[in-house]
Design goal:
The chain is mostly helical. Helices cover 61% and strands 11% of the residues. Helix 3 packs antiparallel against helix 4.
């Protein structure tokens, strides 16, 4: 029941395409270049999305259920209609999503390397601490070293656990959201 209520409220906030029930993320533009970072001097196919647009799209992706389809709809004045710019803009937007996915994948690989390193270090610290023979005659320095190895080992294992369950999970969720945008339709509509 709550999901139906949430769905109804979202459909009040976001329009939907009645043909496929996809949520429409709609934006008004004055010109095609409004889509892209004005500081980016590279060619159109390499341009970065406007930071405010990126933020808006990221926020919208978290507002809408991940299982639902989305479509991007950009409104421009009729006088600005240019089929080549429209096609190039669509391709550039998709390239931005691909680029974001690439960087997310890089971060996930780095996280996996960190996890493996932290697990290895944690196990080494704990094994070293366990292999130090227990004796009541141990000096204070050896005793402190042993305790430090135990604490360090558990801290390394906790960090690996934290990255695996929290850091990587966030990145995987973000990856799904960008992949959904990559799969989405992009429309340009022109108004008087």
């Amino acid at each position: 029941m709550f999901e139906e209520q949430d769905d109804y409220q979202l459909r009040y906030i976001y329009h939907t395409n009645h043909h496929n029930n996809a949520y429409l993320i709609e934006l008004n533009l004055d010109k095609y270049n409004d889509l892209f970072n004005s500081w980016d001097g590279s060619e159109l196919d390499r341009k970065e999305l406007d930071p405010e647009l990126s933020q808006f799209l990221e926020r919208a992706s978290y507002e809408l259920p991940i299982k639902e389809k989305v479509e991007l709809c950009f409104y421009l004045p009729e006088g600005k209609k240019n089929k080549k710019m429209e096609a190039d803009s669509k391709a550039t937007i998709k390239n931005n999503f691909r680029m974001n996915l690439f960087f997310i994948n890089q971060n996930l690989k780095n996280n996996n390397k960190k996890i493996a390193t932290y697990i290895l270090m944690g196990i080494l610290f704990l094994l070293t601490a366990y292999l130090i023979p227990e004796s009541k005659d141990l000096s204070l320095l050896i005793s402190l070293l042993m305790e430090g190895l135990f604490v360090g080992g558990w801290v390394f294992l906790w960090e690996a656990f934290s990255i695996f369950f929290f850091g990587s999970r966030e990145l995987k969720d973000k990856k799904k959201r960008y992949f959904r945008y990559l799969e989405s339709e992009i429309f340009f509509k022109y108004t008087d």
